[in-house]
Amino acid sequence: MRERDRAILKDLERFRCLSRDDVVKLHFSSVKDGVGAANRVLRRLRDRGEVEVITSHAPFVYAAKPSPIKRDSQKIPHYLEIAAVYHQMAQLRKPDLFIPEPKYGKGLPEPDIFAIWGKPLFIEVQRNQFTPSVWQDKFARYRTLYHRGDIAKEPWQNPQTPVFPLLIVLTDHRILVPDALPFKVLQIKGIGDLLK
């Protein structure tokens, strides 16, 4: 298997699924006919049983086989949005670390993204409007994670000066952030707004 094929499969596992255009941006941006090259490679990987194609989306969406998601999953647009955030960040500067949906344990937050992009960030990609009680629960989970101190033991931390990641909420709808949270919360519409 070619190195690029392995890299594509690794990204499909990391992001859960990617559109053909995402694969082009990640692996064929320097190729003259990136779309054609991506189509040929993805077809070869599909024929070899390495990837599944989800044809209900245009352009087609691909997942590693066996797929971690169902073909009709309502989360596919969400996963594609996470990939879009990665592309937005990489256009400005490639993140040092980008982990979609990291797990911290039962009763703890499940951020959409943990990234190190100059500084550590938790990113919530919220394009749907949630009730205030849903947000209060999310903030309570982040507060619990903060007070447990587990983040200070992460391998990316400087043991002398551990930090809790900045929580960024990407949203078109203003949400009520509780007062006196022990960590910073920033609400923006897109990653580019961080530079403003």
Description of the molecule:
It is built from five helices and eight strands, in the order H-E-H-H-E-E-H-E-E-E-H-E-E. With 196 residues, it is of the alpha/beta class. The protein has two domains: 3-73, Arc Repressor Mutant, subunit A (Orthogonal Bundle), CATH 1.10.10; 78-195. The strands form two sheets. The chain has a five-stranded mixed sheet. It has a three-stranded antiparallel sheet with strand order 1-3-2. Helix 2 (20-27) crosses helix 3. It starts with a helix and ends in an 8-residue tail after the last strand.
- Enumerate the spans where pLDDT stays under 50 for 5 or more consecutive residues: none
Count every helix, treating DSSP H or I runs of 4 or more residues as helices.
Answer: 5
Largest sheet: 5 strands, mixed
Compute the number of strand runs.
8
Coarse morphology: globular
Give me the secondary-structure category. Answer: alpha/beta
Quote the beta fraction. 15-25%
How are the secondary structure elements laid out?
Layout: H1 3-15, E1 18-19, H2 20-27, H3 34-47, E2 51-54, E3 61-64, H4 76-92, E4 97-100, E5 113-117, E6 119-126, H5 132-148, E7 166-171, E8 185-188
Parallel strand pairs: 6-7, 7-8
Antiparallel strand pairs: 1-3, 2-3, 4-5, 5-6
Salient structural properties:
alpha/beta, 2 domains, 3-stranded antiparallel β-sheet, Arc Repressor Mutant, subunit A, globular, 196 residues, 8 strands
TL;DR of this structure?
This protein is of the alpha/beta class and 196 residues long.
